[in-house]
Design brief:
Elements lengths: L1 H5 L4 H21 L11 H9 L13 H5 L1 E4 L4 E4 L5 H6 L1 E3 L5 E3 L9 H16 L5
Antiparallel strand pairs: 1-2, 3-4
Helix pairs in contact: 2-6
């Protein structure tokens, strides 16, 4: 009965899960991929960045627009994270880009949730269901 009552209002839990996902994404940008590092930038990209005074710098963070575009949403039933930038998916998934789709962009999954993040979310769920606050 207590679990059923707690499941009627899961918005606080979903808010916390969204926060865990946001922390994970921040860590992905900070570490430039985890647990596996993102592929290094192409020499042509580094050359372009040097010419525009954006080198040295971090992968996917020329001016920080992608990282700052990442937002979370949550409601009673879900927690989601993502970006609404037009170019966000190509960096997450990789693929062909540019004029005539001649440039190959490697996947650099900045929205990745790893095993340690999953453990944090499971622990949050357990704590929520076991808490006496809502009983």
């Amino acid at each position: 009965m207590k679990v059923a009552r707690k499941c009627e209002d899961m918005k606080p839990l979903m808010k916390n899960i969204a926060g865990i996902m946001a922390d994970a994404v921040e860590e992905n940008f900070e570490q430039e991929g985890r647990p596996d590092k993102w592929q290094e930038l192409a020499e042509s990209t580094i050359k372009h960045r040097k010419n525009t005074k954006h080198w040295p710098g971090r992968i996917l963070q020329v001016e920080g627009q992608l990282a700052t575009s990442v937002t979370t949403q949550y409601d009673n039933e879900s927690a989601i994270i993502g970006s609404n930038l037009e170019y966000a998916a190509i960096h997450q998934l990789g693929g062909q880009a540019g004029k005539g789709k001649k440039v190959t962009i490697p996947a650099r999954p900045y929205l990745k949730i790893d095993d340690s993040d999953n453990k944090k979310m499971l622990e949050e769920i357990k704590n929520y269901l076991n808490s006496q606050k809502l009983s």
